[in-house]
Structure formats: structure tokens, C-alpha cells
Amino acid sequence: MIHRRHFLQGLSAAGLLLGNARSALAQAMGHARISPAEATPGFDPDVELSLRAEPGTAQLLDGAPTALWRFNGSVLKGPADSLTFLDGSGHIPVIRVRRGQKLRVHFDNALPEPSIVHWHGLNIVQRMDGHPMYAIDPGQRFVYEFEVGNRAGSYWFHPHPHERTSFQVYQGMLGLLLISDEEEDAAQLPDGAQDVALVIQDRSFDGGNQLVYLGNARHNWMMGFSGERVLVNGRPDYRREVARGAHRVRLFNGSNSTLYHLRWSNGAPFTVVATDGGLLEQPVQQATLTLGIGERADVWMDFSALNAGDTVQLLAESWTPSLQHFTTEQLGLPLVDGARPIAAIVASSATADSRPPPATLSRYPALALEDAVNAQTPRQVEISMMMGSPRLNGRSYGAMDEVHDSDRVTLGATEVWEFANDVSMGMGMGMGGMMQMAHPMHVHNVSFRVLGRRRNGAQSNVHRHLASGFTDYGLKDVVLVLPGERVQVLMKFENHPGIYLYHCHILEHEDLGMMSNFLILT
Ligand code: C2O
Ligand code: CU
Ligand code: CU
Q1: Which helix or strand (DSSP H or E) is residue 81 part of?
Q2: Is 449 a pocket residue for ligand 1 (Cβ < 6 Å)?
Q3: For every residue of 172-227, which 3-state class applies, written as one string?
Q4: How far is the CA of 352 from the centre of ligand 1 (A)?
Q5: Could you report the per-residue pLDDT of 145-194, keeping only the tens digit for each?
Q6: Rg from Cα positions in the chain
Q7: pLDDT confidence of 386, banded at 50, 70, 90?
Q8: Whose CA is nearest to atom 3 of ligand 1?
Q9: Are 153 and 47 in contact (CB under 8 A)?
Q10: Atom 1 of ligand 1, residue of closest alpha carbon
């Protein structure tokens, strides 16, 4: 119970300091008096699930199964496909809901340590966000109840206990949250067997097929973890038969630290139809895709030109946060132009509708720069890696409920934030040189528009190469910020006053404290 006691004490102390923050905090405190294990009698869910975090095993490689930590669960109410498991190793859950539906999830922690579930990308009340202040102990239950307010899209969920997120995700705890809505129905995207989700993660294994992770050395955590093998849906040899026709392929970077630069072996372009925050207004074509940790892209692929039996490979280059290209062969499969084949898409004899995506996919309320309260003076988030600690605005993550003056925003305001990844340049070059890294920056509770990128000085070939695959359009909740860059994003704090997080989504950086609370004030 340490966590909740700490939270309550912290809130009352913070309440004195924050003045007009009081109403948001009072609201949060009111919620906190409810036991996390209780469902609200007046809440009538459309979909009700049990979700358990527990030790288990899965067939990741051939031979011995791998011990891992995983989500398990079942549907208590609602359509049977509200909770399924991805093809592949079978340990990655997929929750499907519609916008406007009420969802209740009974989350049980059967792990040997505290945990909590964060719904990545959701616009949601503070208490349901899975902030680490809500972590529950082994044997405890947390009941989530909320109405799904987000647009249709490919969201996901993962544990978020402070300093243990990286370890728990690495152990296998991650799931997809796929939201549909009427606008998506109208766009008539391929669905059913033509809707394919590919979760890309890397892992290292010992000779007995067991997971190998980072030791405790702080330096290793600073550099981030990159595994020797790239798995798709939990398998290093992922293979999927597809009908010859149009598909929606949802790509997720679910790794701890690794960036992927992707392309198709047959030279087909990616026709991007959605990014983190759902459908784009119009499809965008590009030859390659770069996905930072936590980023998603849905692409339209029409396989009708293939003959039955033909294979198209998804090719991936792996890049560490310090932008080392470390792609090596796996399973004796040769590299293709420096990239590793990570998923084989095999055309079957069946056919499916062959068609291009509609020219107009969706409409969403424009986030307009004119509406920003600080277009001339964007809120700065300075990223640094100094004195052995990854920091934001010079600080490491402190108390769970601590909010700095510079991290308060007003409910209803539209703001520009600038992620500055050039501040440690030139400072103590001995160390600075090594610590120049790409950081995928994530903000809870909002989707943002990427306004643009700036850099002082030359762009290296590596930067150009990775930048060619960026998806800086649509609504995003993660943006990859290359070393030497400043990236501006525009977002609106529309609802849900309270405390949320922004952080680097390199999970080891997040756990080392490259994370901060921000407070939405009424
Ligand atoms: Cu997916 Cu706070 O993160
Ligand atoms: Cu998140
Ligand atoms: Cu980082």
C-alpha cells in the first residue's frame, strides 16, 4: 500500500502549493478514496474484460519455450473478439473496442512486483491513465472504467510502474488497443483477415531460449537496450499467408530502445493511411518508414499483383538510440541491402478485394497554430544526458505528484511545445559526443500535430536516411527527435484536468528519469 499512501500525502502537500490546481487535485483525491479494486455500480460497460499480468511462457523460438511475463485475460461481457491474441507466439493481447463504448477492465497483478497498465495514446481521466502513482502491489486489483473517446486507430497498452517499465515490457507485457468508429467504417478499410497487425520488438536469448536483458550498469541503461534478434508478433521467423488483395497492415514499434527503418522487399511503397492518433485525412506514399519506440503507422498494401506462393518480406534496419546501425543476419537469412527480413508475407491462392484507399479517409478538427497561446514562445523541453543521467529541462523525474512551475498548462489551451535535442551540444565533448542520441518523445492524454523540425548545422547522411521515413503528419503521440534537432508540436488540452506524463519512450531512459509530470489546470 506504500504507493497509495505516498500518493495521498503527496496530493495534500501539493494542494497547498498549487493554488488554483486545487480543483483538479481535489477531484483526483476524491477518486483515490475509492478502492482501486472496486467497480462502480452505476457504470454499465459495453465491454468488460479481465486482464491479468502473470508469469508464463510462450513459443518465441523453435525448441524450448521462453519464460516471460505476459497479459492473459478473458471477455466477461461484450463481443468474443473484444480480447484476442495476435498470431505469432500468441502472448500479445489485442483489445478491440468502438469509440463511445464503455470499457471496464479488471486488472489483476499476479507478478512478483508492482505494476499498472497505461493506455498509450488515450485521452482519458487521470485516474485511468495508468500513471505510476497508481501502481498496485502483487495480488491487488485495479478496475479501469472509461468511455472510449479516441478516434479510430491503433493504440496500445503497457505497464508503467516507475523504474520498472523497461523490464516489464521486455519480459513480454504489451498489448494492442484497436479502436474503430463510424468514420473508419465509412472509409471501408480492409478488415477481418485483411487487417494485419505486426508488432516489432527485439530480444536477446541465451542458449536455452531464455531472455537476456541489460545488467545494472548505468551506462548500459543510458545507451538503451537493443536485442540481437528482431521478432514480429513474438517470432523471429514470422510468416503470414494473405489473400491476393488489399490489406491494412498496422505496424507497431514495441521495442525498448531500437528504432526501425523499414521497407518492402519488392520495392512497393508504404501507403500510410493512419499514424498514432488514427486515420489521416489523405493517404501519403513513401518509400520507407522510420518508427521510433511507441510509434505506429497503418499502411495500405494491395497484394493482388502477386502470384500464389510469392513472398514479400518486410525489411528492417535496426538503429540504436545513438544511431549505430547494428543490423545483423538472423536465422542464417541473408541481409537484403543492409536490412534484415523480419516478416514474410506469402500470397495464398485466395483473392480479396483489390482497390486503392479512398482519397479522403477522415476529417479531424484542425489544430491551428493561430489558436496557440504561445506560438512565439513555445514551451521548451530540453533533452539532456548529463552527469550520468538523462534529464528533461535539467531535471530527473522526482516525486510521483511533483509538478514544476514550468509544467502547468491550462485546460482548453492550445500550446506549442518544443523538444530541444541540441542543448548538450558542445558541452564537455568527451561525454557529449557519446551521449548524442535520438529520443522518441511522448506526451500522455493528447494527440499532437508535428509543426516542424529545425537544426543548427549539418545534417548527416544517417539523419537524412532516417528522416526519409518519418511520418510527421496526422495526429501523433510520439515524435522521434534526432540529435541536433528541435521539433515543435502543437496540441490542445481539451479535457481531463489532472496530472499526466511526458517522457522519452526509450524505456530505459524513461526509467532513469527522462520523464516529467505536467498538470492540466482548470
Ligand atoms: Cu507508452 Cu508513458 O507511455
Ligand atoms: Cu502513453
Ligand atoms: Cu531518450
Answers
A1: none
A2: no
A3: CCCEEEEEECHHHHHHCCCCHHHEEEEEEEEEEECCCCCEECCCCCHHHHHHCCCC
A4: 36
A5: 999 999 999 999 999 999 999 999 999 999 999 999 999 999 999 999 99
A6: 22
A7: confident
A8: 120
A9: no
A10: 120
